[in-house]
Amino acid sequence: MPTEVKSPELRHISVEAISKNPENPRLVFRPGELEELLESIRRYGVQVPITVYHEKGKYVLIDGERRWRCCLKLNRSTIPALVQEKPDDLTNLLLMFNIHALREQWDLLTIALKLPRVISLLTARENKKPNERELAEFTGLSQGVIRRCKLLIELPDKYKRDILEELEKPKPAQKLTEDFFIEMERSLKTVQRAMPGILPDKDRTRQILIRKFRRGIIKSRVDFRMVSKIARAKRVEVEEEKASAALRRLFTANEYSIEEAFADSVSEAYSERDLLTRVRALLNRLNQLRKHEIDDEVRKWLRELRDRVSKLLGN
Amino acid sequence: MAYRFLSAGLWPIANAAADYFKENWGVSSLRLEESICPDIERRPTLHALTSDGHYLCVEVSESPYPTGLDSFVLDCRDNFLPVRLFVAIPAGSKDSNYKRDLDQARIRAVGVLEISGARVQVLQNALSQSLAGVRLVGPARFPKKYRFQLSKAESTFRGGDPQKGCSLLYDEIESLSRRVAEKTYKKGYWRPSAPGARPLRIRFATHPWQKLMSKVVEGLDPQRCRFLPPDLLGRVLGITSHRNDSAHKLNSLRLVMKRDRELRTRFESATDILFDLVNASKPLRV
């Protein structure tokens, strides 16, 4: 099952004799980051050799496209490279995934776009579709990353294009990020599962939520976690009707925010549940304590707590 | 067009810049990310050879002066490469260093184009790096009466007319050296004529400069005029032969490089001569 590759050979090869690997999942090369690497290579040279294989008089990149691009830009004639034997299609892809799993992570969408090809090549080789754990083993990615990738793969193509456009920008300037879509998709999936009738047109809902995010009505991508909580209103014994009304209003083009929907539906119930959890935890802890274990400071606060509870309960 | 280094998001900017130079500069073939010279460390995004024997280079970036551009500018200057370098940037930059980088570009004579769609706005023009690399005159170190002319000489030189720039400097040196010659003569700092020899008849303001300076070098007595060192007068005499060099239109890269190399040296040396002469002639109050 594991893929083995022979030890490569280190050489200095002509920069012009190298070509890009068409299978490279990395699609986005942000100018600012390239410029930083360029400056580093200009000052210190290429400290880590790139990895290539030899094919029809040319070298094809397995790892190091950014370093190779910088050397071209810097007018260098050669670049240090580890030259490997030509791998098969699957090994070619898996090598690239594994090299990057150990170093700087690629943009998630670019991994997501290549995963279907990895899955199809693995299925052909192993005669069965790999599960998440196997996929993680082969690619060097964590199962969590693979799950996040799957959410992105399922997005309609127009949103993938939007994300790619966004990825070209420097990281701080990105707004509609992969994380935004992952949070939104997760919450919409929860809504679909918990309240199936509420999303007749998922894509329209996406567009409304994106518009609200762009206009600042939805302040943060993590607000979508509140949407999931609203959808699971039953868990905190809130009437489904109340929660679904808030979600319907949220999924309509208006100024209604996630925070407002949360406050109008389940906020109180979740606070109550939170309070109960804490009180139970405190009681558990108090049950374990013996009289001689508490010092003056703790005693003072327990008295304060007793008085406050008595007041609340009217004793 | 396909670029190997440039990020895909900046391709439209590069293409719009290429169209701009084709339309406005008449450049026919722009090369993409190719080397302009083996000694130059960076390949500009676009480059072409213009009809006046200069390189037009365009670097496409998000910043008006990307970090690594300094080395390219220095390489061009060190190699006397007549490169007019522009940076093309997308319009509407929100970069906090935008103004600082724009200033850097201006100081280093790098042009900046701001591009939005097909609309190109020239924020500042580029000067030839082989000329812009000239050591600055620093007019402030000269007496006030020279400063305007010196600033003019410097901007003329850097602005693409190096002969004229040199000529403006030579004007000042000539005018001062004529006044020095006349004053020293009138003050009796010259060697007395040999008995029976014809007295010196010379029109200091109009006598050919080279001949006048030869007479000064021969006639001035260093014992009587100790503040004017003979080697300084020799240096002035040395530049008189370049005084009337005429400017011919050059159209080959090799000739432009040769001219810029010579004129940069001449301009810098003339600045030094003027500075020394101004200081040395102070006791004469000319």
User: How do the strands line up in the largest sheet of chain A?
Assistant: 1-5-3-4-2
CATH class category name of the largest domain in chain A? Alpha Beta
Q: What is the H/E order of chain A?
A: EEHEEHEHHHHHHHHHHHH
CA distance, first residue to last residue of chain B? 63 Å
Biggest interface between chains: A-B, 22 and 21 residues
Radius of gyration of chain A: 27 Å
Counted beta strands of chain B:
6
Tally of helical segments of chain A: 14
Overall, the morphology of chain A is: elongated
What oligomeric state do the depicted chains represent? heterodimer
Number of domains of chain B: 2
What's the overall average pLDDT of chain B, rounded? 91
Given as residue ranges, the uncertain stretches of chain A (5+ residues, pLDDT < 50) are none
- Helix content class of chain A: 55-70%
Uncertain runs of chain B with pLDDT below 50, 5 residues or more?
none
Q: State the CATH superfamily name of the largest domain in chain A.
A: Conserved hypothetical protein from pyrococcus furiosus pfu- 392566-001, ParB domain
Give the total of beta strands of chain A: 5
Helix content of chain B: 40-55%
